[in-house]
Amino acid sequence: MNRPGTLGELRSSGWVSRPVKEEVRSNAIRRIAAGEPLVDGIVGYEDTVLPQLENALLAGHDVIFLGERGQAKTRIIRSLTNLLDEWMPIVAGSEINDDPYAPISQHARVLVAERGDETPIEWVHRDRRFGEKLATPDTSIADLIGEVDPIKVAEGRYLSDELTIHYGLVPRTNRGIFAINELPDLAERIQVGLLNVLEERDVQIRGYKIRLPIDAMLVASANPEDYTNRGRIITPLKDRFGSQIRTHYPLDAQLEMDVVAQEVRPLVAEGLVVHVPDFMAEIVAEVSQLARRSPHVNQRSGVSVRLSIANYETLVANATRRALHAGEHEVVPRVSDLDALVASTAGKIEIETLDDGREEQVLERILRAAILEVFRARVRPELLGPVVQEFEAGAIAHTGEDVPAARYEETLETVSALRTVLSDLDVGETPAGVASAVEFVLEGLHLSKRLNKDAVGNRATYRSRG
Length: 466
What we know:
alpha/beta, five-stranded parallel sheet, 14 strands
């Protein structure tokens, strides 16, 4: 692109300097007016979080996002760079993105004074105008603001020379967006160092009589429980954030499924066709929804959407492994594959119990409740009577991980009323799809106490309760 290369050319081009928050506000206004999403890749926040974010940006506020883990706080923060202009001019060689019209570092001030309109200009892409720091207890003022660089002193400069400063992350994000994740983990004495950045818009580096009027938008994230657990945000700092926005988990299973569909990594393997029925995906989503309401799960820790994503991927992986062992090319998850979810669930939720073995019982109870919830929502009750009658007449059905998909056709011949029920589940007529639907209906009938189930290992037998 033919962009101005000197200060004189920049002036002639008509480029106008503006504060970063005005830049963000202007681009946000354009997106909102055009009906475009303010941030990309965010599902389920259209009526809650995003309107609050729009208000904050239009008001020119610094923002803190409060929410448990896995609520897309970091993704929202990082996507704010899309609201910056694509390219921004700086004084060439500047470490802190000096505005050519109003330089603040000694390097840029001297260069502009000496070269005038011949001052060289560089252009910075918006992706380089984002700075991020994960707050940890060992974070120092030097990391955020700056410190004397002993190497520069050793080169012969005086300590009083501003050029001996090694700028921290905040000055280096001048004219950009700076984010601090897990803000309460930042030591309180270090949080004090951010007060000037948020209110007076400057930074002060010890031992120097300088003031750098930094232009930055500050965004932070925190877990609400961190106010009283690992640490807290000091009151003066909280007061300086213009807006506090509360994030949340998906409000229902459908939103959970939408997030999973967006985030899951598809399994691609030569010779295999993967299809996940809607009712199986909904069971995965319902597991997370029920875990967030369970009194046996530590809700302070939260149940991340990452649980649904990991469970979905594990479900598909187990179905794939089963299909490979059986020599089948079509991969369709079944209820018998859900046992594999224990591995991907156990590490992502905290059980409120000290009893050995209690964790698996809680997970099993949640999984059964999820299957039953989806079964009641997906299958019409009036279709189930004839199925139960055939079992009462002596029908028996065998299922399990090691039962080939083709064997389930025999179950349909034995319990013909199942065909009518399967037509509602939209699984097609392939053996793998039929097997998945048959297991789902049989397990639903068992959990609703209409069939008995004898389980040994990974195999199960369904029969009449009589």
